[in-house]
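[SOLVED] Need 3D model of a two-part complex

Original post:
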Amino acid sequence: MTAGSFSAVPVPGGNLQDLRRSVREWCASHIPDDWRDQQRGVSREELVAFLQWWGGQLRQAGLSAPHLPAEWGGGFSIPEQVVIAEELARGDAPRNALYHVALFNVAPTILRSATPEQCERIRSGILAGEVWCQGFSEPNAGSDLASLQTRAVRDGDHYVVTGQKVWTSWAGEADWCILLVRTDADAPKHKGLSCLVMDMRLPGIEVRPIRQATGASSFNELFLDEVVVPVEQCIGAENDGWAVAQGTLSAERAIVILDMTERLRRNGIAAAVQDASERVLESGERALEDVAVREKLAERYAESEVLRNLLSAMIEDVIRGADVGGTSAVIKIFYTELLANLMRQITDLHGLAAQLDQPLLESAGWESGFWMNDYVHSFGWAIAGGSSEILRNVIGERMLGLPR
Amino acid sequence: MIATSSLSIAERDELRAAARGLLSRDSSSERVRAVINETPGFDGRLWDEMVELGWTSLHVPTDLGGGGAGYAELGVMLHELGRAIVPSPFLASSVLASGAFMLCERRTFADEMLASIVAGDAVGSVALANAAGSYDQALLSVEWEHDAGSIRLSGSSGFVLDADCSDIVVVAARDAAGAPAVVAVDTAAPGVRVEHTPTVDATHRLFTVSFRDVVVPDDRMLTEHGAGAGELLDRVLALGVIAAASDATGVAERALGRAADYAKDRVQFGKPIGSFQAVKHHCANMAIAVEASRAAVRAAWDSLDRGPRAWPMTAAVVSSYVGPACAEACALALRVHGGLGFTWEHDSHLFLKRAKLDEVLFGTPSWHRRRLAREVIGDVETPEECTA
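Solution:
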């Protein structure tokens, strides 16, 4: 490469401006202009086919896992990951939802805890486009995850796994499941857990979709009836599963929420402004001219800026190696409340018109433009990945040292 | 003249530690309670010490005797002064008056004044609001006019910080045609009257300054009147907003620390109350507000240090979030203390009152959101019949 030129394919190690330009150009030539229109109201099969296609596009361009090491198709520094996330959001790229568990939950966990052989097998599968799901939560183990009851009984060179998992995204499409099970029923609850990798084609696995409040079925129940999992599929030491399951690192969490924040700014705040400029209120005034509407939009805009400031501070801390456990809980709550407030506010802005039913746009994530449904969808964020109530306990106990 | 941050993170941490050490020793809340009931309403010895240490002129260029640091360092000091709820002319003199003298076009008088402020020979303040406390430039209630090589001012300005101990006040005025001007006025000049307007928060001291045919030399107009003066006022106001937010963040951080300590100590129903989720979640909400405010304020000072672009917009973002969030955090801190927090002897009300004043000191969050909306959403189109 000569000085001043830049690679058509984004590569790590160059200067950030060149990387930004090449990702921006890639987005312009690879993101279909009309994907939102095309994907609205599609069947489950069409949704999955679209996400498979899109995941493949990202993989080929080396953009699906910037946060992972080079041999996993990544190798980008944290500032480079920020640029890539910003540009994908700016280009309104569909979310890489089908592969999210594999790339952001499984891969970091594997990298920390698996043997080289396990790592290699899982890496080559993920690079070939295998889909993963995560079997952690259970009907009686939600916020109190460590109380989970799914049993894995050691029998020679395999475990026999029996139990029930819930809230498992993409279980119907997944090739593999990363599973948290109880291997020692007598140990204290955090000490008797193990982390297994389970082939989803094994006999004894039944997947039942859960229809959620939005009408979509992104989650499943997973029934496991004497599923036989080889012992070499245990990640980390037996009974060390609790530590293994804490695998996703703060850096990845920061990038995931940065991606969501950028999308919120692009597809939420900007869309709200656009809506306000077109909407005529009952009074006959344009919404854009209404002081209350303007003030609220500006307030949300300011919060989105503050959220970016919080993320930048956290990313700096991650680079410096500081502890960001409390900050990531703060950021998750801040994002959740901003999303919910914005979605409610846009819904309110449209009055009765927002109540008309529309086809879903599941590939769009949290700002699909079907605002009443997006508002309902936003409640998912206050629950998934640590409910806001549990996260407030985390902040109180870990940041402030309050007693349990 | 723009301040540029030159200190490393470690040096900034040292400055913070030094300030916190000195202020926790010399400005305990008992001391604060004592000095606000005496004249001049702040601790003169502490102020002299701060001048001596160079803290009051950190961001002033070194050739004028200042520290040559940036706004970010000023932010560190403001945060610490907020933590210790220190009454002092720092905001008025070091931030606002110095800021106006640094940012204005006409240098001669401004440099002289800066040097005096740096040396501790003078204290300054700014009068940017109208008599009713509005910062809208169209509503200024001081009028200026040319008068044979001089400038004549009349009218009054409200909510002026520390005017009674200020030697000079930078005044926002408009002429009969509505053109804004920024004029430095000696408080000892004939026709200037300074009147205390006691506030609920006694750790800030506010005054009404009135001008009755006050005549000052031409060179006291700090920037060409009109658009340039309007821009200068916007920028000094932005400094004020972000400075007040830094102060509020410090106050809220201290209130949070006190509340968390109390929640660990206070036992009811056989347990520390901090183990109850209702209390724990109040504390967590305070921590969210403090953490987010710290990030917002730091980013704002850093952006000021990077250059003169978009100060009013940066300030509007800060005003919209930080003021209300920090005031709410102080309110929650009072609640966590239960009946004790409602007593005069406990400091909770001092924190709450200071944060509530900070929230609106340089324009209400609501007004700043409207200004922000003009940038983010665009102006409301003026109906044609009004423009004719």
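Edit: Residues 382-388 of chain B have pLDDT under 50 and may be disordered.
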